[in-house]
């Protein structure tokens, strides 16, 4: 919504039709900041030489629960 239509008709004291544009600009700025943050953290995650914390937790879980991750044999009859 780019215009705050009928804002003055509601009897409000503050009557400015630019509110929709200002809100949209704040949304776009925060979206750009979030995209920048995600891309920077993703870059460092992909270029990391050591396993991540999540990877280590999954490995530890697999080692403690080997019975859940057994390979099943396909018996040919």
What does this protein look like?
The chain has helices at residues 19-46, 53-64. It is mostly helical and 77 residues long. It has one domain. The longest helix is centred in the middle third of the chain and has 28 residues, at 19-46. The mean pLDDT is 78.
SSE ordering:
HH
Radius of gyration: 27 Å
Overall spatial form: elongated
Number of helices: 2
- Proportion of residues in β-strands: under 5%
Structural class: mainly alpha
Total strands: 0
Report the biggest beta sheet as strand number plus sense, adding barrel if it closes.
none
**Uncertain parts:** none
- Count of structural domains: 1
Distance between the termini: 67 Å
Mean pLDDT rating: 78
Helix content: 40-55%
